[in-house]
Every structure is written in C-alpha cells, then in structure tokens.
UniProtKB/TrEMBL annotation, chain A:
One of its GO terms (biological process) is iron-sulfur cluster assembly. It comes from the Bacteria. It comes from Candidatus Magasanikbacteria bacterium GW2011_GWA2_56_11. NCBIfam families: sufB. SUPFAM superfamilies: Stabilizer of iron transporter SufD (SSF101960). This is FeS assembly protein SufB. Belongs to the iron-sulfur cluster assembly SufBD family. Pfam families: SUFBD_core, SufBD_N. Residues 205-439 form the SUF system FeS cluster assembly SufBD core domain. Residues 110-202 form the SUF system FeS cluster assembly SufBD N-terminal domain.
Length: 468, 351
C-alpha cells in the first residue's frame, strides 16, 4: 500500500474533496417520524430503540434552539439528510472494502495508522462503519470493539442499560434529542474488569454525502480497574450547503478504571459541529479528555466529566483553532458530586484571520464534594487584529472544604520572541509558526505521535498566508 | 455611622438650602433627609425627573436587572434626581449620605467632574428600608475620581445600585464597591474608557452571613487605545449566604495597546455558603494583554494552627485570616474614616 501522505503533508484539498460514493440508501432531506422509522427499519432495530428514537423526536420538535453561544440561525435543519448508507456492508478485512471508499481512507492515512500497531481500525464512511478490525487478542480478553449498530443487535442488554440513559439522557438538550432520534453508526467499546488495553483503539469519521448529517454514537464502558484509550478523528469534505454533525459520546468509568479519549476534529468549514461528550466517573476512576478542534464553521463542544465517586479525577486538555469565518465555542465542564474529587482543565486557543475562539466552561462543586480541588487555566493567542477571543468560565461552588483556582490570559505573540527568532535567520512566517507550535505544545505532547504531527501540520497549513 | 452630621456647607438634597447656587425652592417634593451631600465648592442642581429616568432605564444593564422579580416590584420613578458638578476648586472629600428612601423610591445622581479635578466620593447607603440608586459619572480629561460605595443597609433590607462612569482621555476612575450588609445587595458598576490612556479600576469587598445574598457585576469597556483596567474583588461568605460575582473586560476592535486584569477571591467560611463566579473576557484586538483569575478557598487549617500555636485563640486567629483576605482592598480605601468603618464592620461581624 502506498504510504499515506496526509500524515506528513496534510492538505486542505485532500480532506475537502468529495468522493464519488454511491449511497445505497439515502433518506430525503428533513426530519419526520417516517424518516426515523425508516432509519430504524433499515437497521432492523428492536422496538425499544425505535420507541426511544420517536420519543426523542417528539422532544426535539418541542425544544427551541439554545439562546446562547454562537449564531445558529443559518443552520437549516430541514435541508439536512439524516441518514445515508454507503454501498458496503461491514467488512473484516481491508481488501473487501470497495475501492473508492478505500481511496478515501488511504488519503486520510488510516491504513498507515493501522500499520503503526494501532490495535484496531473502525472507520465511519458516511453513516455506517464499513471497516472494522479487532485484533484477535482483544477479542480473546473479552474486549468488545465494534460498530454501534452491531452492538445494538449483539449486545442488546448492555446497550439498553447504558445507551442515552444516565450519562446523556435523551432529553438533555436539543441536539442530544436530535442525535437520539437519528443516530446511526458509531463505536461501542466494552472493557471487562481489570483488563488493560495497552494500545489505543482508533476510529475515523468522515462526512461525504451532500448536506449529510453525521450522528454517530460512541459508548465506552470501562469496568472496574479496566484501562482503555480511544482515538477519534473526524474530517468532512467541503460542500456548499451547511452540514451538521451532532454526535454523542458517552463514557462510563467504573471504580478504579481509566479512560483516555482523544479526538481531533477537522470538519470542513461549512459544518456545524454540535457535539455532546460526557463521562460518568465512579470511585477512584480517571477520565482524560484530549481534544483538538480545527475545522467546522461553528463548533459547540464542551466535554463534561461528572465525578460521582469518591476520589474520581478528570483531566481535560483542549486546543481550538479558528481561522477566517470560523467560530470555535469550546470548553470543558467538571461536576464534582463526591468528596476528594479532582479536576484540571487546560484550554488553549488560537484565532487568526477574523476567527472567533470562545472558551466556555463550567465547574460546579456540590455541597457533598468535600476536599475537592479544581484547577482551570485557559490561554488565548490572537494573531491579527481582526480576530476575537472571548472567555466565559463559570464557577459554582457550594462547599467550603475545597480549593478552586481559575486563570486565563489573552495576548499576542511576544514581539521580542519574534525578533529573536528572526535574528536567528527565520522568516517572519516561520517565526510565528514556531511560536504557535510552542504555545500549543503542552497539548500536542499529550497526543500519540502521528496525531501530534498531524495537528502541528494542520495548524501550520491553516496559518499559511495569514502573515503579512 | 448612619448619622453622619452634615458639615457647615452642606447642600441638602431636599432643597432646603435656599440661596446656595443651584438649589431651588421649587425642587420636586422630597422626603426630608433623603440624602445629603457634604462638601465645599461643588454645585448641586435638581434635574427634571422624567427625562433622566428614561435615559437611565434605557441602559442595557438596567433591563437585565429589571427582569428579576425582586427588583421589578421595587422599582419606581425616582424621588430625587440631581446633578452634581465637581470643579477644580472643590475640596476632594465629598460625602453622599443616603439615609432614608421611601419604599420603592429611586435616587438618580449625575456627577460631572471638570477637567483636572480631583475628588474622593464616599457614598453611604445606611437606609432602614430599601434603597435604589443610579449614579452616572462623567469624567472630563485628566481628572481623578475615587468613588466608594458602602452598602450597610439594615439586616432585613437591601439596596440596589447601578453606577457607571464615562472616562475621558488621561482621566482615572476608581470604584470601591463595598457590599457589606443587608439581606440583598445588588450592585452593577460599568466603566467606559472612552479617551486614550484612560484608566479604570473596580475594587470590591463583599461579605455575607445568615441568608444574605450579594450580586456584584463589574464591567470595564475599553473603547480607546492604551487604556488600562484593574478589577479586584475579595469576598467572605459565612452562614448560608450566597454571592454571584460577574465581571467583564471588553476590548473594542479599534483599541490597541490595552491592558486589563480581573481577579476575584472568595473565602468560604461555612459549608453552606455558595459562590458563583463568571469572570468574562471579550477581546477584539490582538495588541492586548489581559488576564483573569478566580479562586474559592477555605480558611487554611495550617495557618489557623500556626496562629494558635503563637498564642491566639481560635476566633482571633480566624478574624486575623479574614482580615488578611480583604486587606489588599481595605488598605487601598481612600479615606481614613471609611477604612475605619469597614475595619470595624468586619470586627463586629460574625460570619
């Protein structure tokens, strides 16, 4: 297989070109009970799932759009195609995947990533996972890593218990309702008690059909003492009509378990990325969020950790990049509901060419959360005078045996720093790129190698021509 | 402290000072001793009511608070609307004493500080009932105004205040927002830095005990280049008291070279006390250095232990640490009398 170039030299064009994918079943634009029934029938779903979808749809219709945050007025929910199934059934081996779909993934660097000893590859082409490869070793240890549609059929009991019940309930907010009504595809990970998955599991999501919606559901359950890392990458080709991504990630971290969730989201610039990510963390469990938000026209994403067991911990690292026309409204939430819990949030953002980066965070320490500690820091970098940075950190503290600290800084790249780098022979552009790379370095360091490379290259690419 | 005797040249806001410049017998009817201004060489004039109220109510901050039921029922047209003019001849110490407010009444005060003038204004709300105040300050270039508002309403009453300042080039506006006593105090302060190199500071102390509620909303709008702002608030909450602290520094797109910092530290003395903080930044120019920080902490057990090992009893050690927490602002208060009264308040207060 030819080496996948995107890892070392990503180019916007590679990510933005639509493939000639021939969808097998494509729902008509717009949302109605019949669309929801068709999606459910197509997937041969049990009744409880269909009922859940219909109930969510009812709620969705009744609920108004959020009246805060970025402007969603250009998002036309009636123009979106809520379900597209590509012409491929789920395959076990790479060779069985249709050639044009394979080409898409080649460009995105998936097989190369797999070669580099990643444990398994699940890639979502439009709305269904077409390729999944679980290492036999994992299956032997009882780890389930599969397409979410498959999980609904084969692991119904577990799915029924955890799917949109206590973590992200169906009625959580408007886009969670939408997600519950039309979700399709996604990933299901189940790690049994005391099993440690050493290598990160990986999936890549991509939106391809015109006006396509992507509503993948990710459910990760780490039983007592289990450990798992999951990497998710997203990219979508560029189209004229606004597309919508409203995914949902639910993570259950049981006692003493540890989950690390990475996501690099690089949707095309006309996508609305309105995502919900939440983890419920039990006693002594640890959740770690590492997220990079690069693409999308509008992003609203605030990974939340609910620390409900004594000594639970949450660690959020995020970097957001907003170029011309983009609004990245990202942040993190930590809800402390048990004693001795600890959360740290570190967020970095870069705005250039008129882009808007907002940090919107919530830290809530309940009255039961004695002896808890919270540390939040967010930094923003403004590259030019058309760009905007806003910070909205909300802290609600209802316990006094706590230590809560928040700080934020906004500024430009130091002139002395640039002068020094230029005096050492770098051009202005190189100097700025180096300073930016240094700014996001603490977050890039937390990423697996090829993702770190990709993130750095993507930011370089986005910054291209933004100087002078 | 609520019986501050008017000095010799007191201008009474009830219009009783006939013959003094600006004070007319034909002033609107007022409750006697509603409030008084004591200073020399400043000018107090009654204002036509309706227009000023309409102007004040049109402010964006007002609309937000009005929507809250606790305010909407208590707001009424002002029972006093006055304009105060500070000149270079005015002696700096000015006392505004707000003692008695008719239920639902609102006091509107417009203060203009002439170019190059200096003043230390101490506004005291010591009303037995509810007090509502709107203060509109206009600072001409190169003047320095300090405005300290101390709200020590009766325990069962409260106060609501909306204060704003428009700061011209090179002028400096310093607010002290002291939300000390009263079942509810709501205070919103906005400084508009409209002239180059204008400076604005908002310092605050809030204290809550029992079921008291504090709302503080501090904002600085940087509308001109090279303007600077500094926001610092310290709070002490005991009992089941609650505080809601919001702050915003906004840098306009055409205001390069601005500096701004905001910080709020709350000391939570009881497990039932609650604090909500929302310090916001909105930056629309890249040539900027802004920061904000928030902390919520308890009394450090190690420090308490240390002080007790040095011979202080538990309550003295506690008192000392509480005083230490607010000291940065206490120490910066502009008038010795004010410093003393805040200091005494904290000594007498059991949080």
């Amino acid at each position: 297989m030819k080496p996948a170039t995107p890892i070392t030299t990503p180019s916007r064009v590679l990510y933005d070109e639509p493939d000639d994918g021939r969808p097998r079943f494509c729902a008509a634009p717009g949302l109605s009970a019949s669309v929801v029934r068709r999606i459910s029938a197509q997937k041969n779903e049990p009744d409880w799932m269909l009922n859940k979808r219909l109930r969510a749809l009812e709620l969705f219709v009744k609920t108004p759009l959020p009246n805060w945050g970025p402007d969603l007025s250009k998002l036309n929910l009636d123009e979106i195609v809520y379900f597209v199934q590509p012409e491929a059934a789920e395959s076990k081996s790479w060779a069985e995947v249709p050639a044009d779909i394979r080409r898409t993934f080649d460009r995105l660097g998936i097989p190369e990533a797999e070669k580099k000893v990643l444990a398994g590859v699940g890639a979502q082409y439009d709305s269904e996972v077409v390729y999944h490869n679980i290492q036999a070793d994992l299956a032997r240890r009882g780890v389930i890593f599969c397409n979410f549609d498959t999980a609904v059929r084969e692991h119904a009991e577990i799915v029924k218990k955890y799917f949109m019940t206590q973590c992200v309930p169906v009625n959580d907010h408007k886009f969670a309702m939408l997600h519950a009504a039309v979700w399709s595809g996604g990933t299901f990970i189940y790690v049994p008690k005391d099993v440690r998955v050493e290598l990160p599991l990986q999936a890549y999501f991509r939106l391809n059909a015109r006006q396509g919606g992507q509503f993948e559901h990710t459910l990760i359950i780490a039983y007592e003492g289990a450990e798992v890392q999951y990497i998710e990458g997203c990219s979508a080709p560029r189209y004229d009509v606004s597309s919508l991504h409203a995914g949902c990630v639910e993570i259950f971290v049981h006692r003493g378990a540890r989950v690390r969730y990475y996501s690099i989201e690089n949707w095309s610039k006309n996508t609305y990325n309105l995502n919900t990510k939440r983890a419920l963390v039990d006693e002594a469990g640890i959740i770690e969020w590492v997220s990079g938000n690069m693409g999308s026209g509008v992003t609203m994403l605030y990974p939340a950790s609910i620390l409900r067991g004594r000594g639970a911990r949450s660690d959020s690292l995020g970097v957001a990049f907003a170029g011309p026309g983009q609004h990245q409204d990202t942040g993190a939430k930590a809800i402390h509901a048990a004693p001795d819990t600890k959360s740290t949030i570190r967020a970095k953002s870069i705005s250039t060419g008129g882009g808007v980066c907002s940090y919107r965070g919530l830290v809530r320490v309940g009255s039961h959360a004695r002896n808890s500690a919270v540390s939040v820091s967010c930094d923003a970098l403004l590259i030019d005078d058309a760009s905007v940075s806003t910070t909205h950190p909300c802290m609600k503290i209802a316990a006094n045996e706590v230590d809560v600290a928040h700080e934020a800084r906004v500024g430009k790249i130091g002139e002395e720093e640039l002068f020094y780098l230029q005096s050492r022979g770098l051009s202005e552009e190189q100097a700025i790129q180096l300073a930016v790379a240094g700014f996001i370095e603490p977050i890039v360091k937390a990423l697996p190698l090829e993702y770190a490379l990709e993130l750095n290259r993507l930011i370089e690419l986005e910054m291209d021509g933004s100087v002078g | 402290m609520n019986q501050m005797k008017p000095k010799k040249n007191t201008l009474r806001a009830d219009g009783a000072n006939a013959g003094l410049p600006g004070a007319k017998r034909s002033a609107p009817p007022l409750v006697a001793d509603l409030f008084s201004v004591s200073s020399t060489n400043c000018e107090l004039k009654p204002l036509p009511e309706v227009s000023t109220v309409a102007a004040a109510a049109a402010r964006p901050g007002m609309a937000g608070l009005e929507a809250q039921p606790m305010f909407s029922q208590r707001l009424a047209p002002p029972i006093a609307a006055y304009a105060l003019r500070i000149t270079r001849e005015t002696l700096p110490a000015i006392d505004l004493d707000i003692r008695q407010v008719k239920a639902g009444g609102l006091i509107y005060l417009e203060i203009t500080a002439e170019t190059g003038s200096t003043a230390n204004i101490w506004e005291k709300i010591t009303a037995a009932g509810w007090a509502a105040v709107i203060v509109n300050l206009r600072l001409e270039s190169q003047c320095r105004i300090t405005y300290a508002a101390s709200q020590t309403a009766a325990p069962e009453a409260g106060s609501w205040a909306l204060r704003q300042a428009n700061v011209a080039a090179g002028a400096e506006m310093t607010w002290f927002d002291l939300a000390l006593q009263g079942s509810l105090t709501a205070s919103e302060i906005t400084t508009y830095l409209t002239g180059e190199r204008a400076r604005g500071a908002i310092y605050g102390i809030f204290s809550g005990s029992g079921d008291e509620v504090r709302h503080l909303n501090h904002r600085v709008e940087h509308l001109a280049s090279r303007t600077e702002s500094n926001l610092l608030t310290r709070g002490v909450l005991g009992g089941r008291s609650r505080a809601d602290y919001r702050s915003l520094i906004r840098i306009a797109p055409d205001a390069p070279g601005c500096r701004g910092q905001e910080r709020e530290d709350t000391l939570l003395l009881s497990p039932q006390a609650r604090i909500e903080s929302l310090p916001e930044l909105e930056i629309r120019h890249h040539d900027v250095a802004c920061s904000h920080a928030v902390t919520a902490t308890r009394l450090d057990p190690e420090r308490l232990f240390y002080l007790q090992s040095r011979g202080l009893d538990a309550s003295a050690a506690r008192e000392l640490l509480v005083r230490g927490h607010i000291f940065a602002i206490l120490d910066a208060l502009p008038r010795p009398g004010l410093r003393r009264s805040v200091s005494e308040f904290f000594l007498s207060r059991s949080h």
